[in-house]
């Protein structure tokens, strides 16, 4: 993947440094990040410059960029910059969700279900099923490609950090996400097949320059929880909500594609999730989160926080799409102008 276009002073300065040999970042870059105004939770989640800068920092621990030396991943000054950006991001996440009250570990699965039932986010799935144009459905898939082309990877960071029933449950879920060892059944590959069926570029990161900050925030939330061991409970709660809220929306998405005339090859990604996540829902709630909470009673609040973040950030992205479409506008950013030779 090539480096993206900058979206503000922080990402511009960061990208300038990353395309040079690894060395301590200049103090001026850290000052830029420190001087940024906190803003409301919503404004921070929509902040293109912040979210892109954080996404770039996280991506160095995934596949990286063609122009960036691998050694940047562990450069102390870059890790310090990432922490500074997180110091704006984490309070925004906390401000976005309602206060979390801990519950006894044995009732955690029920508390997760109650959290989901209380969610009243935008009705994006019904819109895609019944009303979305081919262009709008393609935009939705472009937004989701930022996560789905690395599907399961952020949550797999938890595997070496947990044990017992929770570890076994997580490996069972992740094994299905990775196709049970069969490349063509990996969910990221099924998503790539769907993208090709829709006539979209299926390259990893192809739409990075086109998606807004709030879409990057969806992935940044997972990476924050996955790359920092202190956030392991939140990562488990995050995954649980994805699994527990997946079946019905994916059924709607598949039906939306069928309404638009697409065949089983294109809808397979969504059809597969309807069946798989109906099973994963129970495993995630009872064995993964419930099992972890039994072993770590003090982790219940963190699990619920991660679950609440998954719902809240996804709702912000859904609201962005629906608002733009209601105005007759694209939900994607304009194509960046080519660099001047």
Automatic annotation (TrEMBL):
<protein>
    <recommendedName>
        <fullName>Iron-containing redox enzyme family protein</fullName>
    </recommendedName>
</protein>
<dbReference type="Pfam" id="PF14518">
    <property type="entry name" value="Haem_oxygenas_2"/>
</dbReference>
<dbReference type="InterPro" id="IPR016084">
    <property type="entry name" value="Haem_Oase-like_multi-hlx"/>
</dbReference>
């Amino acid at each position: 993947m090539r480096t993206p276009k900058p979206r503000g002073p922080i990402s511009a300065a960061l990208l300038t440094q990353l395309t040079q040999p690894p060395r301590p970042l200049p103090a001026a870059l850290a000052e830029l990040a420190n001087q940024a105004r906190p803003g409301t939770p919503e404004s921070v989640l929509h902040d293109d410059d912040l979210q892109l800068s954080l996404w770039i920092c996280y991506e160095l621990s995934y596949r990286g960029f063609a122009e960036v030396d691998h050694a940047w991943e562990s450069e102390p000054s870059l890790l310090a910059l990432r922490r500074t950006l997180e110091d704006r991001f984490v309070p925004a996440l906390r401000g976005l969700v309602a206060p979390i009250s801990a519950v006894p570990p044995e009732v955690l699965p029920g508390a997760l279900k109650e959290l989901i039932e209380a969610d009243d986010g935008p009705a994006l799935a019904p819109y895609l099923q019944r009303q979305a144009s081919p262009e709008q459905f393609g935009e939705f898939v472009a937004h989701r490609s930022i996560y789905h082309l690395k599907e399961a990877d952020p949550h797999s960071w938890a595997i070496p950090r947990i044990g017992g029933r929770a570890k076994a449950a997580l490996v069972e879920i992740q094994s299905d996400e990775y196709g049970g060892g069969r490349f063509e059944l990996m969910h990221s590959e099924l998503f790539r097949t769907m993208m090709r069926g829709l006539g979209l570029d299926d390259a990893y990161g192809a739409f990075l320059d086109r998606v807004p900050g709030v879409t990057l925030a969806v992935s940044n939330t997972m990476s924050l929880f996955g790359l920092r061991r202190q956030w392991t409970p939140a990562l488990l709660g995050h995954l649980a909500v994805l699994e527990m809220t997946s079946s019905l929306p994916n059924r709607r998405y598949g039906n939306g594609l069928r309404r638009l005339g697409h065949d089983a090859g294109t809808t397979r990604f969504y059809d597969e999730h309807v069946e798989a996540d109906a099973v994963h829902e129970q495993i995630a709630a009872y064995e993964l989160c419930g099992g972890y909470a039994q072993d770590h009673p003090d982790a219940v609040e963190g699990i619920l926080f991660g679950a609440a973040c998954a719902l809240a950030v996804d709702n912000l992205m859904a609201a962005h799409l629906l608002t733009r479409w209601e105005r007759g506008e694209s939900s994607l950013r304009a194509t960046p102008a080519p660099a001047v030779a």
